[in-house]
Structures are given as C-alpha cells and as structure tokens.
TrEMBL record:
It comes from Streptomyces lomondensis. SUPFAM superfamilies: P-loop containing nucleoside triphosphate hydrolases (SSF52540). This is Hydrogenase nickel incorporation protein HypB. It holds the Pfam family cobW. Belongs to the SIMIBI class G3E GTPase family. HypB/HupM subfamily.
Length: 245
C-alpha cells in the first residue's frame, strides 16, 4: 500500500515538473519572470508584497500579482490597493499551488507587457515547497515572532529558497528573537543563501527586495539552493529525515 501511495505521489510530482518547465519556457518567451513567495500564515508576506507592488507601480514597472488562499478574496483586495493588477486564486481546500493552476489563471488574464509576476502561495511551509511553479525566483519569508528554529523544522522550504526574507524585524526585541541563531540555522540547511531583513510597517527592506527581484528579471544569476525543486520528491513531514546536515 505504501509503495502504491508513493508511486502516485511520484507521478503527480513528475507531471507537475513537466508542466512547470513548459510554463517557465512559455513565460520566458513573453518576457515574464515569476516570483514564488512561500511562508506560514501570519508571516506578513501580504503586507510586504503590497508595499513592494506599490513601490513598483510608483516606478512605472510592469508588475502583477496572483494570490492564493483556501477561501476569501481578502488578500487580493489588500494587494489591489497598490494599483497593480491582482487576481485571487481560490484552491478550495488544497494546501498548495500547482503549475496547472498557475497556468490556468495566467492564461487570458496576465496583462500584456507584464515582466514580473508575484505569486503569493498558500500559507504553508510543507507541501508548497515541493511544487515547482515555473518560477524564476523562490523566496521563503518568516517573521521574527515565529522563532529562530523554524529553518530546522522546515528544511525543505528553507533549503529550496533562492532568497530568505525575515519579516517584522521591528519586533525582534519584544519577541526575544535570536538573530545569530536564526542565521546559523538558515545557513545549515541552505549554505550561502542571502537573508534579507524587512519590516513592512516601517518600509525597511522594501526597496532592497524589489531590487533583488528586478536583478533576477534582468538576468542576474540566482543562488543555487541544495534543495531546489527536485524531480519527484515530496515532504509532508515538518522535519524530513536526512535533509538537515
């Protein structure tokens, strides 16, 4: 029975990998780079993304955003205040986005001339980490209120990130957050990855994050994470055996 379940999982991921590769090529021909944002619920990624989108709009940059949730269009309404084109994707209970869903929502909607598409994935650090969406850049976000050991608890997510963003840094002191320990844990699962500090409330890190994304869009090489989406791997456990050095 376990072998059968594993075979089904492998087949599902293999199909997703193929669709993601095709979508990546298709969007690249259109000059579109996809930024996949992953985090747990409450990390502050919607607020930070809204600030980044607003800054991009101020600069006249051709950006758009697609936000995924199990229910409600609350996040799409919030992001739309930036002035950027935004679309809500409701997963009807699915805990992650897949390449087929992204393709279906991009077709016929993505404004002509868009060069950056931000995808706010479902709030979850387990399943989304295993699904390639055809992205050019995968960013994993975490708030200081979540605890510095989170990279060790979710090694697949943090180990597959091209960039890690620490959010709500204005609460570092009150939360008793150990920045040095956090940095060490991130480097343990993803050696060499950059950790960007941010605070949407004060604007810290907003411009820096936008510049990192634009650099990738313009062809700058990205960090090569050890657990970049691998063919046919899926982690449903918080700590996957053997992934933490």
């Amino acid at each position: 029975m376990c072998d059968s379940v594993d075979e089904v999982t492998q087949a599902v991921l293999a199909k997703n990998d193929g669709l993601a590769a095709g979508l990546r090529e298709e969007l690249a021909r259109r000059g579109v780079s996809v930024v996949n944002l992953l985090s747990s619920p409450g990390s502050g990624k919607t607020e930070l993304l809204g600030r980044v989108l607003a800054r991009a709009v101020e600069r006249g940059l051709p950006v758009a955003a697609l936000t995924a949730d199990l229910a409600t269009e609350n996040d799409a309404d919030r992001l739309a205040r930036s002035g950027a084109p935004v679309k809500q994707l409701l997963t009807d209970g699915l805990c992650h986005l897949e390449a087929r869903q992204l393709r279906g929502h991009v077709e016929g909607w993505l404004p002509e001339g868009t060069s950056l598409l931000f995808v706010e994935n479902v709030g979850n650090l387990v399943c989304p980490a295993s699904y390639d969406l055809g992205e050019s850049l995968r960013i994993v976000l975490m708030a200081v209120t979540e605890g510095e050991d989170k990279p060790l608890k979710y090694p697949t997510a943090f180990g597959s990130a091209h960039l890690v963003v620490l959010t709500k840094t204005d609460l570092t002191g009150p939360a008793g957050f150990d920045e040095a320990a956090f940095d060490a844990h991130v480097q343990r699962v993803n050696p060499g990855v950059e950790v960007l500090r941010s605070c949407a409330r004060t604007g810290v890190g907003v411009d820096a994050l936008l510049e990192r994304v634009l650099a990738v869009r313009d062809g700058s090489p990205v960090h090569r994470p050890p657990l970049a989406p691998r063919p046919h791997s899926h982690a449903h456990e918080d700590a996957e055996a053997g992934l933490v050095p």
